[in-house]
Design brief:
The protein has 121 residues and is of the alpha/beta class. It has a single domain (3-108), classed as 3-Layer(aba) Sandwich (Rossmann fold), CATH 3.40.50. The chain is 44% helix and 21% strand. It is built from 5 helices and 5 strands, in the order βαβαβαβαβα. A 5-stranded parallel beta sheet has the order 2-1-3-4-5, with helices on both faces. The longest helix has 13 residues, at 11-23. The two termini are 16 Å apart.
């Protein structure tokens, strides 16, 4: 079973994403903020990390940079979810080591399609 870490401070969105992905057989761990995301990323073995751009404690950008500095997480796939959709935001994400970027709002099926594409590549 593929394991995913989902970090987003919006509880309703997390619930929607968890329901969508668990229905397809993915195991999901949740984090409410950047600090919790880093703690879980450092202690878990994930196939994919999904980060919200704007979170309390640390932003998704800060979390991604710190994950990329972990020896065991150099190759993990990271997907950024964000309402910040300017080209400069996307470029900042790429520079931080983000592999994929999805603009909010999105449909759960769009996210599922992308997750399956990432994990089956």
């Amino acid at each position: 079973m593929k394991r995913i870490l989902l970090a987003d401070d919006e509880e309703v969105l997390r619930m929607l994403i968890v329901d969508t992905l668990e229905d397809e057989g993915y195991e999901i761990d949740e984090a409410e903020d950047g600090r919790e995301a880093l703690e879980k990323a450092g202690s878990g073995d994930y196939d994919l990390i999904i980060l919200d751009y704007m979170m309390p404690e640390y932003t998704g950008i800060e979390v991604a940079k710190q994950i990329r500095n972990m020896d065991s997480h150099q190759d993990i796939q990271i997907l950024m979810l964000s309402a910040k959709n300017q080209q400069s935001d996307i470029e900042t994400s790429q520079e931080a080591g983000i592999n994929y970027y999805m603009a909010k709002p999105f449909s759960p099926l769009q996210l599922l399609d992308l997750v399956e594409e990432i994990l089956n590549a």
